[in-house]
Design goal:
Layout lengths: L1 H59 L4 H10 L5 H17 L3 E6 L5 E7 L9 E3 L5 H9 L3 E2 L3 E3 L4 E11 L5 E10 H52 L13 H40 L4 H127 L5 H117 L4 H23 L4
Antiparallel strand pairs: 1-2, 1-7, 2-3, 4-6, 5-6, 6-7
Helix pairs in contact: 1-5, 1-8, 5-6, 5-8, 6-7, 6-9, 7-8, 8-9
Length: 573
């Protein structure tokens, strides 16, 4: 019954360790999955914001600012330019196939007015309350800059949106309207739901794999230790016929070898004790049978007691050897204990190094995020410069038209002078010279502007490429961080396993102490027998014992022999 209770406690401890490590793995994987989901949601939101801003900027380039200003004032749905621009925006919105693309103007204090709606749902002149728009819409009108917003809720439609606002400029570089592109919340929810499904599947697979690996590792780790404990318990119950053989690690093999030596020595001791006990029993019987003849009893008793003295002395010597062997066994177990403790410290050091590496990667992620924001700012600045260059080109075209009108005027003056044969031709020649210089200057300016435009295009391409590289770097850091977190979790699990081995070794030490106590008890019994036989020898040598005293001594010897038999009867040799 005692053995069964111990086995139940041991397997209960194993089950607790398995449950604890499994829970740690499951919680770690769930936490990492939640963090990944949050990062993916944030990344998806940022991606939709950038896409909305890019679509709005592309649409603005298709709108003539002056014509748009004219349409926004007249709100004439039959105007030719309105129909053309409406068709262009509808085609663009259809090609994109996700959000809503439309233009608004700020003509009232409390409302924005729709002009050209690429989604095809709102007519020209429709008014929408300003509180339904994010604050970035007002900033686009006020500051003339492009903005995108975080997801916001519109109570009128009971929906939430991600929007981008890009100002529309006329030829005088004045904001005459805003191009808006919206993503509905349902599209964001669909994307995040799909991502959540993939994350849940990956989490379930990781948890299943971790539980299987945890079970196999614990089973392999506990199997040799359980066999060793079962063997020690059998030895503690007195069965010395067991042979210890195992394919366990080197430390467990050392314990097996030490236990084999101990069992072998105890077998020899018990055999000698049995022989001595038999001799004591025979001697006591002889004393009872031949108590009438004192001389014969003396001789036989003297011989028997001398043999008992020799045997018990040998028994005492062997007991001391067994104690020395047990001490060596405890030293070997202590050596294993120190090795396990060293491994536990190594796992703790691995966990500390992995934690420091995770902190370093988090710093790198912050730097990459800063670089992304700077690249976005550079892209915005290049877009503004491009808009200004477009304005300069419009001004140059105006100068060219003035130059052409001046040329026509000069030709007219020349014809009139030839008809009237006017002699004041110097003014006309000066005008022609100025016209030629204007043409040359205009061509040079156009060349410079073309060169600047090309450089801006190259810069924009470089910024896009840098943004892609930064995104790749961010993904790589996220993967490295996940790998380090996995290493950190594994080191913690191995540390827990080292602690379990630490507890098991303490149990082995307790068992070996129990065996050592049994050997000491045998030694004490042997010492008592030796003392009794020495007293008996002294009495017989003095020849002062009577027949009754011989009988009493014989009875005492038989009792001691029975006690010795009882002590060794629990051992199975």
């Amino acid at each position: 019954m005692e053995l069964n209770n111990k086995e139940g406690n041991r397997f209960s401890l194993k089950a607790k360790l398995s449950l604890m490590t499994s829970l740690i793995m499951i919680v770690s994987i769930v936490v990492v999955s939640a963090i990944c989901y949050g990062d993916l949601y944030k990344h998806t939101t940022n991606l939709l914001q950038q896409q909305a801003l890019s679509v709005a900027k592309s649409a603005v380039r298709l709108i003539d600012g002056d014509e748009f200003e004219r349409i926004s004032l007249s709100l004439d749905s039959n105007d030719t330019y309105y129909e053309e621009s409406l068709g262009i925006l509808k085609d663009l919105n259809k090609d994109i196939g996700q959000g809503m693309l439309y233009t608004i103007v700020n003509q009232d204090q409390d409302y924005y007015t729709y002009v050209i709606d690429g989604s095809g749902t709102v007519e020209i002149g429709h008014k929408q309350v300003k509180s339904d728009f994010s604050k970035e819409a007002a900033l686009a009108f006020k500051e003339g800059k492009s903005y995108f917003c975080e997801p916001y809720s519109v109570e009128t439609f009971n929906k939430y949106y991600i929007s981008a606002f890009v100002p529309i400029f006329n030829s005088q570089n004045q904001v005459v309207g805003v191009m808006e592109y919206d993503y509905e919340g349902a599209e964001i929810a669909a994307i995040t739901k799909e991502m959540l499904g993939h994350i849940i599947k990956a989490t379930v697979v990781l948890i299943s794999c971790s539980l299987i690996i945890n079970y196999l590792v614990l089973k392999r780790l506990f199997k040799p230790i359980e066999k060793l404990i079962e063997t020690i318990e059998v030895i503690a119950k007195g069965d010395l016929t067991i042979e210890l053989t195992s394919q366990a690690p080197e430390e467990i093999k050392q314990i097996h070898n030490a236990l084999n030596k101990t069992v072998y020595n105890i077998r020899g001791i018990l055999e000698k004790i049995k022989e001595a006990s038999k001799k004591v029993t025979v001697a006591s019987k002889s004393i009872l049978v031949t108590s009438k003849d004192a001389s014969e009893v003396y001789e036989e008793l003297a011989v028997s007691t001398m043999k008992i003295v020799d045997t018990t002395q040998k028994q005492i010597d062997v007991s001391k050897k067994v104690e020395c062997t047990l001490e060596e066994l405890q030293q070997d177990i202590q050596s294993v204990y120190e090795k396990v403790d060293k491994k536990k410290k190594e796992y703790a050091r691995m966990d500390e190094i992995a934690s420091q590496s995770i902190k370093g990667i988090e710093e790198v992620e912050k730097q990459i995020s800063h670089i992304e924001s700077r690249l976005a700012l550079a892209s915005q600045v290049s877009s503004q410069i491009s808009n200004h260059i477009n304005g300069i080109q419009d001004m140059i075209m105006t100068i060219l038209r003035i130059s052409e009108q001046t040329t026509l005027l000069a030709l007219t003056v020349r014809e009139q002078r030839e008809k009237k044969q006017d002699t004041s031709h110097l003014g006309v020649e000066n005008v022609e010279a100025l016209i030629k210089q204007s043409h040359l200057a205009t061509k040079e300016i156009k060349g410079i502007i073309g060169f600047i435009d090309e450089q801006l295009g190259a810069i924009s391409c470089e910024i896009k490429e840098s943004t892609k590289q930064v995104e790749l770097g961010l993904k790589a850091t996220v993967k490295s961080k996940d790998a380090l977190i996995t290493i950190c979790d594994n080191s913690k699990v191995m540390g827990e396993r080292a602690n379990q081995a630490y507890i098991t070794i303490n149990e082995i030490l307790d068992k070996s102490s129990s065996i050592s106590e049994s050997v000491r008890n045998i030694g004490e019994v042997s010492t008592y027998i030796d003392s009794s036989t020495m007293n008996l020898l002294a009495i017989t040598e003095e020849q002062v014992a009577t027949s009754d005293e011989f009988k009493t001594m014989a009875k005492l010897l038989r009792e001691q022999a029975k006690l010795l038999d009882d002590s060794i009867s629990r051992f199975k040799v």
